[in-house]
Amino acid sequence: MQWGSRHSQLFFFLSTGVGCYAREVLVPEGPLYRVAGTAISISCNVTGYEGPAQQDFEWFLYRPEAPEAALGIVSTRDTRFSYAVFGPRVAAGEVQVQRLRGDAVMLKITRLQAQDAGVYECYTPSTDDRYLGSYSSKVELRVLPDMLQVSATSPGPRGRQAQTSPTRLTVHEGQELALGCLARTSTQKHTHLAVSFGRAVPEAPVGRVTLQEVVGLRPDLAVEAGASYAERLAAGELRLGKEGAERYRMVLGGAQAEDAGTYHCTAAEWIQDPDGTWSQIAEKRAVLAHVDVQTLSSQLAVAVGPGERRIGPGEPLELLCNVSGTLPPPGHHAAYSVGWEMAPAGAPGPGRLVAQLDTEGVGSLGPGYEGRHIAMEKVASRTYRLRLEAAQPGDTGTYRCLAKAYVRGSGARLREAASARSRPLPVHVREEGVVLEALAWLAGGTVYRGETASLLCNISVRGGPPGLRLATNWWVERPEDGELSSSSTQLVGGMDQDGVAKLGVRPGGGPVSVELVGPRSHRLRLHSLGPKDEGVYHCAPSAWVQHTDYSWYQVGSARSGPVTVYPYMHALDTLFVPLLLGAGVALVTGATILSTITCCFMKRLRKR
Ligand SMILES: *[C@@H]1O[C@H](CO)[C@@H](O)[C@H](O)[C@H]1NC(C)=O
Ligand SMILES: *[C@@H]1O[C@H](CO)[C@@H](O)[C@H](O)[C@H]1NC(C)=O
Ligand SMILES: *[C@@H]1O[C@H](CO)[C@@H](O)[C@H](O)[C@H]1NC(C)=O
Q1: Residues in domain Ig-like (predicted)?
Q2: Residue 15 burial (CB count, 10 A)
Q3: Distance 245 CA to ligand 1 centre (A)
Q4: What pLDDT was estimated at residue 306?
Q5: What separation in angstroms does the CA of 482 have from each of 477, 479, 535, 593?
Q6: 3-class DSSP assignment, residue 123
Q7: Domain containing 361 — which CATH number?
Q8: Ligand 1 close to Cβ of residue 32 (< 6 A)
Q9: I need a labelling partner for 420 at 20 to 30 A (CA). Which of 99, 232, 276, 385 fits?
Q10: Which of 113, 144, 175 is a domain's end point?
Q11: If you measure from the C-alpha of residue 44 to the centroid of ligand 1, how many angstroms do you get, rounded to a whole number?
Q12: Residues 143, 34: contact at Cβ < 8 Å?
């Protein structure tokens, strides 16, 4: 206000072109309140002067007990200006005048003392032709005792005053770190407190440089986070609240390994000067706690039992998995999943999933285990059991338990924080010891086009449990460009262990029938044989056993030798045309054709 009106007065002088300048010396409006032991800077500038641009300044103090006595503090032109009370402090740099411009300076006192209270006068020696305007200006400084207190409160809801040595806190990764700070001031004047929580890396010396702000409450009550914590504040993972008149509480959720360190609370006291600007008049810091973050990966461990297993086929297989470590209980902040993997003996890699329980406790079976009777359950707080109702020889392999720990990050999404695999647990399931053999042949030896080809397959079985059942498939390999290739092997038909027939694709496209003609004797019939049915056929029987859980599993298989099917043309057909020409010629021609076909076919067979 005052500055504004003075300014317009000055502007009036200048604009009227009178050419007379009025010197004016300006210091901030008082009274200023500052706290003993802290620093103060008082600015002073001069306008409307004549003479050199480089003006000199002298600072004086009038103490309340002797308001008439001017004590020289410091001057820009005379190093011997200071009175005895200020001499040593000026010499030590604790009191100094700093030039900002030719016509502006700053008086700085780094550690205010109680006897520094009083009226400060900034005086500018005249360089003007005429004596006009003001040559000095005054501001009052009042020195307040230091009433700011900062300390740690225990993290409990009550917030008791903590012991003097900083506590050591351990939080689990993903959990919440809550720290309390008590900050109060009993300064008589109205002041605001700014409270800031900071972190210094473990073992690092603490200072402004090493201390990284986490979050702070500004004098205007705005909550702001340090640069690297802004995202977590925005996500609601980091919070700062004031509880009651003097308690402040910081909550940092989703603790990460990088959150470890020494936490501090810094309280700053701010006062509003008469000119409206806010000045910090005191600052104090207290150590809140040394915080360790226990990562899940450093803790999660998995053990399996009960050791190497040897069981017979059809017997139940039970494996236990214990998850251990100092882990947070499953709940809002942490979740776990446990599964079993199996690698067949000698197979590389971590194996394939058998069964697992997800973070919600929902079980699922791995690919290839869908039809099996398998249970995965939690039998104790940290013990999980895998049970295969009826083991099969194919279950032989090494089993590992795989546990994963998750923490709930910002946005309530689960993030995998750690995983651990147990040592391998070997499991052996005895083979059934079934020996299968298959003998296949073409009934009648030769077959002509248009007739039905009957292929028979006799199976012999040795060993195996009672109730063993047989299934058989018939396969054909077709000549491609005169060559037989196994890639063209096709299923023609078959019968499963329940006696249900299944049909594949017949090369010639006609009807197929499969049936059981004896207890261990299967038959495949290809009706209305055509030239496209030519090929090498075989039967592939398999032996099956049904377990108590009603699942079937294969205990043996075999493959018969090859059976060649060549649909001959009828001799009559080949003879029909030549007969018209003459029986003698016809007989010779027919015999030649017949022997050619036979010869070529035999050659083809030999080529195999
Ligand atoms: C001169 O000092 C006064 C009081 O400290 C301040 O408000 C003003 O901005 C200063 N003027 C200049 C030009 O520095
Ligand atoms: C798993 O924990 C249970 C109970 O805590 C214990 O009896 C069992 O021996 C443990 N098994 C393994 C393999 O560590
Ligand atoms: C095939 O089995 C049937 C009936 O089981 C039997 O009569 C026949 O002699 C067997 N044939 C051969 C070649 O083993």
Answers
A1: 37-140, 298-419
A2: 9
A3: 37
A4: 84
A5: 12, 5, 11, 20
A6: strand
A7: 2.60.40.10
A8: no
A9: 232
A10: 144
A11: 7
A12: yes
pLDDT tens per residue, range 401-428: 999 999 887 667 788 889 999 999 999 9
Does 45 sit in the ligand 1 pocket, CB within 6 Å? yes
- Asked, for residue 603, whether it belongs to a domain, the answer is no
Whether residues 551 and 470 share a domain: the answer is yes
Q: Are residues 450 and 532 in the same domain?
A: yes
Enter the DSSP assignment of 470.
Answer: E
Q: Is residue 374 part of a domain?
A: yes
Mean pLDDT, the chain, whole residue set:
84
pLDDT of residue 571: 66
**Chain centre distance of CA 480:** 55
Residue range(s) defining the domain that contains residue 369: 297-429
Q: Using CA positions, which residue lies closest to atom 1 of ligand 1?
A: 45
CA of 47 to the centre of ligand 1 (A): 10
The token pair at 191 is: 């002041």
Q: How far is the CA of 483 from the centre of ligand 1 (A)?
A: 104
Number of separate domains in the chain: 4
Residues in contact with ligand 2 by the CB-under-6-Å rule are 303-305, 320, 322, 380, 383
β-partners of residue 170 are 292
Burial class (CB in 10 A: 0-12, 13-18, 19+), 232: buried
Q: Whose CA is nearest to atom 13 of ligand 3?
A: 458
584: pLDDT strictly greater than 80: no
**End-to-end CA gap in the chain:** 114
Same domain? 249 vs 315: no
Strand residue runs (E) in 527-608: 535-546, 552-557, 563-565, 567-568
Q: How many residues does the chain have?
A: 608
pLDDT tens-digit readout, 212-221: 999 999 988 8
103 plus 209 within the same structural domain: no
pLDDT at 592 over 60: no
- Same domain (yes/no): 378, 264: no
Residue range 291-324, pLDDT digits in tens: 999 888 888 999 998 888 899 888 899 999 999 9
Residues 81 and 177 in one domain: no
The Å distance, Cα 45 to ligand 1 centre, comes to 6
Q: Quick check: helix, strand or coil at residue 570?
A: coil
Instruction: Dump pLDDT digits (tens) for 54-81.
Output: 999 999 999 999 999 999 999 998 888 8
Taking the CA of 384 as reference, the closest ligand is 2
507 part of a folded domain: yes
Q: No. of H helices and E strands in the chain? A: 6, 44
Pocket test for ligand 2, best of 308, 320, 422 (most atoms within 8 A of CB): 320
Q: Is the domain of 400 the same as that of 469?
A: no
Q: Which residues contact 394 (CB under 8 A, 6 or more apart)?
A: 344, 429, 553
Ligand 1 atom, smallest distance to 101 CA: 14
pLDDT higher than 90, residue 113 = yes
